[in-house]
Amino acid sequence: MSDWETVTIIRKKPQKASAMKTEQAINRARREGIPVETQQKWGGGQNKQHVTTKNTAKLDRETEELKHDHIPLSLGKIIQQGRQSKGWSQKDFATRCNEKPQVVNDYEAGRGIPNQAILSKMERILGVSMMMSKVKRKGSWQTTGAPREKLMSLGA
Questions:
Q1: Which of 28, 74, 94, 125 could be stapled to 101 by a disulfide with Cβ–Cβ 3.0 to 4.6 Å?
Q2: SS3 for the chain, per residue?
Q3: pLDDT at 48 over 90
């Protein structure tokens, strides 16, 4: 009926080429004593360009510390007072300005980077003229927090 002399050996499928490239497969081949040849391609699989530009030396010689302008704290207080006089939370005010609440928070805390479009929206919604003319006197901003109606009556 059955032949007791027949031996069946079940083998695993040979590995695909992509599986042979993994670090695990390379280490297994090294343990088994199989000669392994690896080759690293220059810049392979990375989006890097290692080319120096002409401006590199110019940037290296640069000694000035460059920083962004920030909203002065006095302007932040004007925004905060205008918002609180309307009885709005920062989130309500941000919704009315179509901005994120974090932007309103940064502007009120004096951490925000000045954006004239955002400031004019806030000015219009609050009804307060912030007169954000940036006058470079010792690196400061000139602000007045008078209500818009009062400025109009003064002829400003």
A1: 94
A2: CCCCCCCCCCCCCCCCHHHHCCHHHHHHHHHHCCCCCCCCCCCCCCCCCCCCCCHHHHHHHCCCCCCCCCCCHHHHHHHHHHHHHHCCCHHHHHHHHCCCHHHHHHHHHCCCCCCHHHHHHHHHHHCECCCCCCCCECCECCCCCCEHHHHHHHCC
A3: no
Number of domains in the chain: 1
Range of the domain at 137: 73-154
Domain contains 16: no
Of the CA atoms within 13 Å of residue 40, those in its CB half-sphere come to 4
pLDDT at 80: 92
Residues 65-86: what's their mean pLDDT? 87
CATH code of the domain in which 89 resides? 1.10.260.40
Give the angle 64-133-79 at the CA atoms, nearest 5°.
Answer: 100
9 in a domain, yes or no? no
Of residues 51 and 138, which shows the higher confidence score?
Answer: 51
* Stated pTM of the model: 0.47
Whether 94 is covered by a domain: the verdict is: yes
Residue 23 lies in a domain: no
